[in-house]
Specification:
Mean pLDDT: 93
Strand order of the largest sheet: 8-7-6-12-25
CATH superfamily of the largest domain: FAD/NAD(P)-binding domain
Number of helices: 14
Radius of gyration: 29 Å
CATH topology of the largest domain: FAD/NAD(P)-binding domain
Number of domains: 4
Helix content: 25-40%
Length: about 600
């Protein structure tokens, strides 16, 4: 396609780009392209003023394509698609080129090379835009029903939130009762409310709401259909295997977490008086008077932090290297509960670092003021816990880095292992919903800040501690975020999906099945038009990953928006040589195709 009218806008990004890339030189290079009719820089292309300028250019210059060279497409793809649409242009005739993360930030020591690379990246974007066509979004009708998987505090709040705005809910809980972990807790931080009472109130509201159907002792076993109109299979009787199917426009996953399972003899676990944090929490909540264990008053408590979190891979096979976030504050809060009870209890916190983040720092200060002693232990020398042969009490030995590394021995009546969260085993559910799992084992969102509860599976959301370690308040907040995202599509009655999906040339296709094997979303389907077996792509299931394209032996599959011709045009643009003298050769510009 020739004779296009393309606008190119290169962002200074407040110096993030222009401090290392000569943006004026990049623009000058692009002006020589016959299809580029507008080429200019802007301090911030995402600003309202620049957005309005782009809209005016589209209308006045009759632009049929725009290229914005700025930051990551993850940040502003929807911003500039909106700009294109408001200007009367198809949103899919816009290309965003990442010259911040992929260029200026990675080549701060080579301004000339960064400028040359940025020029090539923008030329690649122009090459792709030159071959774009005005695609239309895929419109799908949505069913005003939702399935919420998991009846903990996040799932309960999500179910209520959906029902309150008129969306029918099917709440599926694997255990015989609703409530999850919170149902077994007494006083909780940060709100000071009783966990069992809090959950009890939510369960009562759920049971009384006519818009919520509750399945306990049940599991989701399968999902079929397409976005907005899923058919979800629920095993309602785990003993007989009886299954029912329900229709739903969205699915909210809030399956919760498991506590790290401490191995026998790990930090003395198995010895009388060595307990995990959840076990200790139950003990504290059940004792109204003097804290006792097995009928004896407790005088000395030692807390050992980071049990099951931030593990050393050289010591622990399949180490859990992440921080569980919540457990430091949970341990500090438990120590404050102990300090509020009658009698004097000495409490020692053996930590590698304390993470009472945000406003919970006040709890840490209060704990210090109430007499808790904090000792920083070496990362690679964990405390030793054994039975003292002389007194019969627990003997904890460690080194305190805050006291010049001196060895410390503490006689304790109880040792509390501050255990972290681990992902719950959900293999069947993960397969059924095709949920993405991160390297830590928790379910993965698209973007932790911009799209924190959305997954790559349209209409499937995650919330609560199945996503990452968090406290109850954060879990409820994420559950309500999932409600908002579900409502945004279900209340309208329809949703628009990106048309950047795979397409099949049925004349070239001979159905070998390789595309079906390569697709993780089950988008390719075998059909038989005129008696010939060929592939047909379910556009609502396709995510545009392109995994099916290279495996097709007859080259019958292409990807809208990233066709073979567009990719070749992008490569040609990146291999082009800027006209400025003394610029590095292509091979010298590191990561030009990254």
């Amino acid at each position: 396609m020739s004779g296009r009218k393309i606008g190119v806008y290169v962002c200074h990004c407040g110096g993030n780009i222009s401090d290392y890339v000569d943006v004026e030189k990049v623009v000058e290079e692009l002006r020589s392209d016959p299809d580029v009719v507008v080429a200019r820089t802007a301090m911030f292309t995402c600003s309202d003023a620049t957005q309005q300028e782009i809209i005016e250019d589209i209308k006045e210059q009759n632009l049929d394509g725009i290229v914005v060279a700025s930051c990551s497409p993850k940040l502003h793809t929807f911003t500039f698609r909106g700009v294109a649409k408001r200007g009367g242009l198809s949103p899919y005739q816009y290309t965003q080129v990442n010259v911040r993360e992929q260029c200026s930030w990675t080549h701060t020591d080579d301004h000339a090379g960064a400028t040359a690379k940025a020029t090539r990246l923008v030329k690649a974007g122009v090459g792709r835009t030159r071959l774009t066509v005005p695609l239309e979004p895929i419109v799908v009708e949505t069913v005003p029903k939702a399935v919420v998987i998991g009846g903990g505090v996040a799932g309960l709040r999500a179910a209520l939130g959906l029902a309150e705005i008129g969306i029918a809910v099917f709440l599926v809980e694997r255990e015989p009762r609703l409530g999850g972990w919170v149902a077994g807790f007494g006083e909780m931080y940060p709100h000071g409310k009783n966990g069992s009472e809090l959950v009890g109130g939510l369960v009562q509201q759920v049971r009384q709401n006519p818009g919520i159907t509750v399945f306990t002792n049940a599991e989701v076993t399968g999902k079929s259909g397409s976005f907005g109109n899923y058919r979800v299979d629920i095993r309602v009787d785990r003993e007989t295997g009886e299954t029912v199917s329900v229709e739903a426009g969205s699915i909210v996953v809030s399956t919760g977490f498991d506590v790290y399972s401490v191995a026998q003899e790990e930090f003395g676990y198995g010895l009388e008086g060595v307990v995990t944090l959840p076990e200790f929490k139950c003990l504290v909540d059940s004792n109204d008077g003097v804290l006792e264990y097995n009928g004896r008053p407790i005088k000395n408590i030692v807390y050992i932090y980071c049990v099951g979190s931030r593990q050393d891979p050289d010591v622990v096979e399949s180490a859990r290297r992440y921080c569980s976030r919540y457990c430091c504050t949970a341990a500090v809060h438990a120590s404050l509960q102990v300090a509020a009870k009658p009698g004097r209890v000495h409490q020692y916190h053996l930590h590698r670092d304390v993470r009472t983040y945000g406003k919970y720092e006040k709890l840490y200060d209060e704990s210090l003021n109430k007499g808790s002693v904090y000792l920083k232990v070496p990362d690679h020398e964990p405390p030793s816990v054994k039975r003292d042969p002389e007194t019969g009490r627990l003997l904890v030995t460690t080194r305190d880095l805050l006291a010049e590394g001196d060895e410390v021995e503490i006689l304790a009546d109880m040792v509390v292992l501050v255990t972290g969260m681990v992902p719950r085993a959900n293999e069947e559910l993960t397969r059924a919903l095709k949920l993405p799992v991160g390297k830590s084992g928790f379910f993965n969102e698209i973007h932790p800040k911009l799209r924190p509860v959305e997954t790559v599976v349209d209409g499937v959301y995650i919330c609560g501690t199945c996503q990452q370690p968090m406290n109850s308040a954060e879990a409820v907040s994420s559950g309500l975020a999932a409600v908002t995202q579900s409502a945004s599509i279900l209340k309208k009655g329809f949703a628009e999906l990106d048309p950047l999906v795979a397409v099949v040339d049925t004349g070239a296709c001979t159905w070998c099945g390789l595309c079906d094997e390569a697709c993780p979303y089950g988008a390719p389907q075998q059909v038989h038009p005129n008696g010939k077996s060929v592939a047909l792509i379910d556009k609502t299931a396709c995510k545009g990953c392109g995994g099916c394209v290279p495996v097709c032996p007859t080259k019958a599959i292409d990807l809208e928006g990233y066709t073979d011709a567009q990719i070749r045009a992008m490569i040609d643009g990146m291999l082009s040589t800027p006209s400025a003298a003394n610029v590095p050769e292509v091979a010298e510009v590191a990561g030009v195709t990254s």
